[in-house]
Amino acid sequence: MSRARDRRRTGFRDRYGPWAMVAGASEGLGAAFAMELAARGLNLVLVARRPDPLAALAARLPTLTRTVVADLGTDEGIEAAGVAGAGVELGLVVANAAYSPIGRFVDMVPDQWRRALMVNCHAPLELAHRFLPGMVARCSGGFVVMSSLAGMQGSPPITVYAATKAFGAILAEGLWAELRGSGVDVVTCVAGAVETPGLAETKARRAPGTLTPDQVVTAALNGLGRGPRAIPGLTMRVSSAVMSRLLPRRTAIALIARASRDLTRPPESGGPHSG
Length: 275
Ligand SMILES: NC(=O)c1ccc[n+]([C@@H]2O[C@H](COP(=O)([O-])OP(=O)(O)OC[C@H]3O[C@@H](n4cnc5c(N)ncnc54)[C@H](OP(=O)(O)O)[C@@H]3O)[C@@H](O)[C@H]2O)c1
Description:
CATH architecture: 3-Layer(aba) Sandwich
Mean pLDDT: 93
Shape: globular
Low-confidence stretches: 267-275
Number of domains: 1
Bound molecules: NADP nicotinamide-adenine-dinucleotide phosphate
Strand order of the largest sheet: 3-2-1-4-5-6-7
CATH class: Alpha Beta
Number of strands: 7
Strand content: 5-15%
CATH superfamily: NAD(P)-binding Rossmann-like Domain
CATH topology: Rossmann fold
């Protein structure tokens, strides 16, 4: 590693270490966040429901790790993550876990949208409220909320997921403004399509501008301290600007609906996704 790179990484660890929590760390973007944060020298609290991939990931990381097997769709799971985070000096939280029910809202069972609200909205709020005060007191830290371009307009057939992603983005932007000057950086990463198991599970066709998890993670972490919102990838920045500023709302919604029309998931899968 070059000296300049080494210095940058040490700076990141001083600013956002010594521990980071990744909520939703067992695969996809969460695992990529964990690997990059460990490479930058941070110790990790890794939260997800499945113990085996969590343990396998922890074994590969070069820094200290704690794994928390917890369902962030439940109060007990959020409490378990909170307790684990309270036991270390947490300088960074990545709110990455998500659940996306696919299909018409009127055909959903209430448990689907309740779960989406719990995992995608309630859990990030709880983690923010538990851990931001400590960071503010230390005048140092960061909070990353994973959002999606799907959340920038109505997005059938992932209408509820999209609405929760809008919540996450607006929450992060408000916190960014509230905490400006406190030493604590908040950013929302508004991603387009990313090659993850969650996306593959939905059988979505590969969209133009699809990024790798590493590209998205780099954009999100580099976005800390630079503004309220990071949109990874030039294609996604351009489509976001066109969709939100140039097109009439009904056209933007129709375009997203068209792009998402093939989304589907095996009925037995309760798994997370994204879009
Ligand atoms: N992939 C995309 O194209 C894309 C695009 C835009 C935005 N995003 C956003 O990026 C984030 C990650 O997406 P991804 O595609 O990497 O997702 P993913 O592959 O489906 O992984 C999601 C992670 O969250 C964990 N998780 C899900 N539900 C959980 C729960 N109830 N409690 C605890 N952990 C839970 C999963 O682990 P367990 O199953 O072990 O719990 C997994 O580690 C999401 O916030 C998503 O909205 C993704």
